Amino acid sequence: MATLAAAPWFRARLIPNRHSLLRYRQSICFRRRSLSVYALAGDEGDVRVRFAPSPTGNLHVGGARTALFNYLYARSKGGKFILRIEDTDLERSTRESEEAVLRDLSWLGLAWDEGPGIGGNYGPYRQSERNALYKHFAEKLLQSGHVYRCFCSNEELEKMKEIAKLKQLPPVYTGKWASATEKEVQEELAKGTPYTYRFRVPKEGSLKIDDLIRGEVSWNFDTLGDFVIMRSNGQPVYNFCVTVDDATMAISHIIRAEEHLPNTLRQALIYKALGFPMPHFAHVSLILAPDRSKLSKRHGATSVGQFRDMGYLPQAMVNYLALLGWGDGTENEFYTLEQLVEKFTIERVNKSGAIFDSTKLRWMNGQYLRSLPSEELNQVIGERWKDAGIVTESQGVFIQDAILLLKDGIDLIPDSEKALSSLLSYPLYETLASTEGKPILEDGVSEVAKSLLAAYDSGELSGALAEGQPGWKNWVKNFGKLMKRKGKSLFMPLRVLLTGKLHGPDIGATTVLLYKAGTSGSVVPQAGFVTFDERFKILREVQWESFSTNASLSAGAVTH
């Protein structure tokens, strides 16, 4: 609901009629064809929302969340989700950016009901194709007296701003053309003086809206002043385009970022002047960085395309974006798009800013990644490994076993490359020389190494690993008895000697998989894989005394 209190022609309550249907239709000539214009306001069920991005760059996560909230509201109310491209900034708008926005929205699963590539009864859906419509309504406002021609030069306008600044007043228009005579106007037209169309704002009065998120918001008219709706080059100004588009496309609810809240006053005046019913407004809070500043490129990735290229899943992005400022009142954090449609209400959207936590997004993506059906997960990661030149085939037993072993440490698909490469490597010397490796050396790892070499040379270890996990379990049980070790005292030195690392997934499954990697031909030779033969060759050449000496020297340096 919105209320305007002002001069006689503005004394009206601007409330969409919920009991009757308003249909306004005009036909105008447009590039040799007729363009039908509709403005529709009906029952609460006739919900029409829009997302109207400017194709001047990539789709920001803030814009994506706005699109998502519009989509969820439309679907939850059985309404329509319209996509409109606001490309009136001819210098910055590009078709490449438009295509990127459409691609990102499609990737997120936000299918629009009307718009580019689909059409609809309220098109065209690009502002650059609607200029005849804007000119038509600008002329209508001129004829009704709500708009006048302003012939002020840039120098005159700048002088007005300077005077207002000195007087500490709002920079409102104070030029003479608001009250110019018809004779004065015709003289300037005859001279060919450039002019703008300036909207006549009432001197007294106010606008009050009941924002669906922020509650009651009001403005006084005297803070605004007469504003331009058409530039001297014939191009319409943003607020005029948006209002005409929303009205003629019968948009019932405008859900947009809070940075557009100040535009509402201008748009409400235009709605009323053209005789269109006012839509409902809902202004969504900004997405903030961890330092509570506006999220920007300096904080890292901010566009949907960047997150997609980084390996994020669309279902994780949609889920996380929905939680930035909305919740269903429960502790649940995971929702499919269908569940969000079922749960979403505009009343539960928070009016305070939401912090974008990239760590939580990454964690959430890992949860979604690991919950994929095993066939899909194996295919996605297997293809990634093959494309990276690590494995020879993107499927098979080795791929399945490797993913099963490593998936708990993979939050993003690209992480899988590092995980597998790390598994296949053998940084034994670096580990033994590290500070963390010192306790292993002191625990007699060299004695374990001698017995392990003997087990490998005899074929006993290889035979056990050929039997898989059961073979490993039997072997390690007997090896522990031989060494009189168990638990951490047994498995930590074995992990270091077999994998070259202090940490990693289950040592038994890891050892069996490394054995398969060397016997199945699944790993590309140039992938940095150190085979068991090579590992035991390195192990055989270790000079344990040198590590003991280095450890003693380090201890002495600390003591003194």
UniProtKB/TrEMBL annotation:
Q: Where in the cell is it found?
A: Mitochondrion; Plastid, Chloroplast
Signal peptide (UniProt feature, chain positions): none
Which reaction is catalysed here? tRNA(Glu) + L-glutamate + ATP = L-glutamyl-tRNA(Glu) + AMP + diphosphate
Enumerate the spans annotated as Glutamyl/glutaminyl-tRNA synthetase class Ib catalytic domain. Answer: 47-363
InterPro entries the UniProt entry points to: aa-tRNA-synth_I_cd-bd (IPR045462), aa-tRNA-synth_I_codon-bd_sub2 (IPR020751), aa-tRNA-synth_I_CS (IPR001412), aa_tRNA-synth_I_cd-bd_sf (IPR008925), Glu-tRNA-ligase_bac/mito (IPR004527), Glu/Gln-tRNA-synth (IPR000924), Glu/Gln-tRNA-synth_Ib_cat-dom (IPR020058), GluQ/Sye (IPR049940)
GO MF annotations in UniProt:
ATP binding; glutamate-tRNA ligase activity; tRNA binding; zinc ion binding
GO BP terms: namely: glutamyl-tRNA aminoacylation; post-embryonic development; reproductive structure development
UniProt EC number: 6.1.1.17
**Organism domain of life:** Eukaryota
Q: Which SUPFAM superfamilies match?
A: An anticodon-binding domain of class I aminoacyl-tRNA synthetases (SSF48163), Nucleotidylyl transferase (SSF52374)
Alphabetical list of Pfam families matching this protein: Anticodon_2 (PF19269), tRNA-synt_1c (PF00749)
The reply to whether Lipid biosynthesis figures as a keyword in the UniProt entry is: no
Keywords, comma-separated and alphabetical: Aminoacyl-tRNA synthetase, ATP-binding, Chloroplast, Ligase, Mitochondrion, Nucleotide-binding, Plastid, Protein biosynthesis, Transit peptide
What general EC class does the enzyme of this chain belong to? Answer: ligase
Q: Which residues form the Aminoacyl-tRNA synthetase class I anticodon-binding domain?
A: 399-514
Q: Name one GO cellular component term.
A: mitochondrion
Grouped into one coarse class, the protein's main location is mitochondrion
Which NCBIfam families did the record assign? Answer: gltX_bact
**What the protein does?**
Catalyzes the attachment of glutamate to tRNA(Glu) in a two-step reaction: glutamate is first activated by ATP to form Glu-AMP and then transferred to the acceptor end of tRNA(Glu).
**Similarity field:** Belongs to the class-I aminoacyl-tRNA synthetase family. Glutamate--tRNA ligase type 1 subfamily.
Name of the molecule in the record? Glutamate--tRNA ligase, chloroplastic/mitochondrial
Q: Which organism is it from?
A: Anisodus tanguticus
